């Protein structure tokens, strides 16, 4: 009689819990030392259910098929000079921010999910963490392979891992992940798998990748949508992980709620960079940041938290503040980058009339009243050969590390500024959300590595701007400064001149 074929659930069971064992000469507390110190109570690890029942052999088959399609697109782009098919070289500044800011986070996620795959006591959850660790490494690799094509032709991409560790604006995403990976295992799961992956990832991958497609970058959009199918699985696993914790013990509810409040706010502040990319760096725009926020957070997130209310979970604290700020933060972020482009590995530029009209249409309650005149003044200065650069150093928020340029939610003419005291010193934060985070763990955030502080302390290559930029590995005059007049603009115009149709020759009169 032929052996009975196992169904999916049975195969999954053999590949996960079937490989687990009970220790005989070491206690579980010694084997899994990080499982209890956060106060989370788990009574039945076998209650964890992977909604996908994904086993390793099935995983390789799915991912191999996606890899074949992605690398076919990458090869096609290289062979057909795909860099010439994008709408405008200014678009590449969004790609530069992506590889400088996001790709190293994928690698950090790979490392820490591998850590969880060793240290979580439940066999099912360990396997899920192992799968996600491999996913994150794949995302890092495919992003590097895709964007490396642009590195042959454009500036600012050559040393992104070094820049990620040192550049002032990249300390925003870096500090986010440093914070998560130095937390306990369950806080990390809530931070990355739930708050970031489930609540906020769509704001990064869906509208931005649609923008990449709309601007002719088919390689980037292919890896984006390839990764998004993994992200969808991560999102479901993240939601299941939170539900698992909530169902194990009522005492877990306030702990998880506190983490949701914290990591929603940290993720929202991190996405300020994405907001600016969408509204200012895409020559052809798909949707505004405010529209994306309404679709992917207010509607989708609202339904999520309505569902979680049965466990006693409410919408994140300060979600109302984020909703109220959606008409402001993107313009304030562009202002920061415009001021400090000379110290960045991306270009900025003056906003033209067509772009101003689009911003007025998308932000009818805020843009013309609070921001447009500022842009017009800067453009006038640039036209006179006096392009404005801020030669000071910005004060950074002690928690999110964004320069302190955000305004009070009910008064866009006043900078939002909060102060905490710890150990006899004062620490400054940009919002009530960041102040709450600092005040809850001042021992942790008082040690934050702030780029501006490090410059003042002499730890960044020297006391002058050129010395600091050398330390950043910025190729001065090429990677930084305004796009107008840059070598990149000159190269792009030269390429486009050769691709424009020749003017018809005049026919001589007989």
TrEMBL record:
It comes from the Bacteria. InterPro entries: Ferritin-like_SF, Phenol_Hydrox, RNR-like, YHS_dom. Keywords: Monooxygenase, Oxidoreductase. GO terms for molecular function: monooxygenase activity. Residues 418-449 form the YHS domain. This is Phenol 2-monooxygenase P3 subunit.
């Amino acid at each position: 009689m032929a052996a009975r074929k196992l169904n999916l659930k049975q195969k999954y069971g053999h590949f996960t819990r079937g490989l687990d064992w009970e220790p005989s000469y070491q206690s579980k507390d010694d084997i899994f030392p990080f499982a209890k110190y956060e106060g989370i109570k788990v009574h039945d690890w076998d209650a964890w259910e992977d909604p996908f029942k994904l086993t390793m052999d099935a995983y390789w088959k799915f991912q191999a098929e996606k890899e074949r399609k992605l690398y076919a697109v990458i090869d096609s782009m290289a062979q057909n000079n795909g860099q010439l098919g994008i709408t405008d070289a200014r678009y590449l500044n969004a790609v530069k921010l992506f590889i400088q800011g996001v790709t190293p986070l994928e690698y950090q996620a790979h490392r820490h999910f591998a850590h969880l795959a060793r240290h979580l006591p439940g066999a099912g959850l360990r396997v899920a963490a192992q799968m996600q660790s491999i996913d994150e490494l794949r995302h890092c690799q495919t992003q590097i392979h895709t964007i490396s094509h642009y590195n042959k032709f454009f500036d600012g991409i050559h040393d992104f891992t070094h820049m990620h560790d040192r550049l002032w604006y990249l300390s925003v995403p870096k500090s986010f992940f440093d914070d998560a990976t130095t937390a306990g295992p369950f806080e990390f799961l809530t931070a990355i798998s739930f708050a970031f992956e489930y609540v906020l990832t769509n704001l990064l991958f869906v509208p931005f990748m649609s923008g990449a497609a709309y601007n002719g970058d088919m390689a980037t959009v292919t890896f984006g949508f390839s990764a998004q199918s993994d992200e969808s699985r991560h999102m479901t696993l993240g939601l299941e992980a939170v539900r698992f914790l909530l169902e194990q013990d009522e005492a877990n509810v306030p702990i998880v709620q506190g983490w949701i409040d914290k990591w929603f706010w940290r993720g929202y502040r991190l996405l300020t960079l994405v907001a600016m990319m969408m509204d200012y760096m895409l020559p052809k725009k798909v949707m505004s940041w405010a529209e994306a926020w309404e679709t992917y957070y207010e509607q989708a997130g609202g339904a999520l938290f309505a569902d979680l209310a049965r466990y006693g979970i409410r919408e994140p604290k300060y979600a109302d503040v984020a909703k109220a700020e959606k008409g402001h933060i993107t313009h304030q972020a562009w202002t920061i980058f415009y001021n400090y482009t000379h110290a960045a590995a991306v270009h900025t530029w003056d906003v033209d009339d067509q772009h101003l009209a689009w911003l007025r249409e998308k932000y009818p309650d805020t843009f013309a009243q609070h921001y447009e005149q500022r842009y017009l003044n800067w453009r006038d200065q640039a036209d006179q050969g006096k392009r404005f650069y801020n030669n000071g150093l910005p004060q950074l928020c002690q928690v999110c590390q964004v320069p302190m340029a955000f305004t009070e939610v009910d008064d866009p003419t006043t900078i939002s500024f909060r102060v905490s005291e710890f150990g006899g010193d004062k620490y400054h934060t940009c919002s009530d959300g960041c102040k709450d985070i600092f005040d809850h763990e001042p021992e942790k955030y008082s040690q934050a590595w702030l780029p501006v502080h490090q410059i003042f302390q002499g730890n960044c290559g020297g006391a002058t701007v050129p010395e600091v930029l050398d330390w950043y590995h910025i190729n001065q005059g090429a990677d930084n400064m305004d796009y107008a007049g840059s070598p990149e603009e000159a190269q792009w115009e030269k390429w486009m001149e050769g691709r424009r149709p020749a003017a018809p020759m005049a026919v001589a009169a007989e």
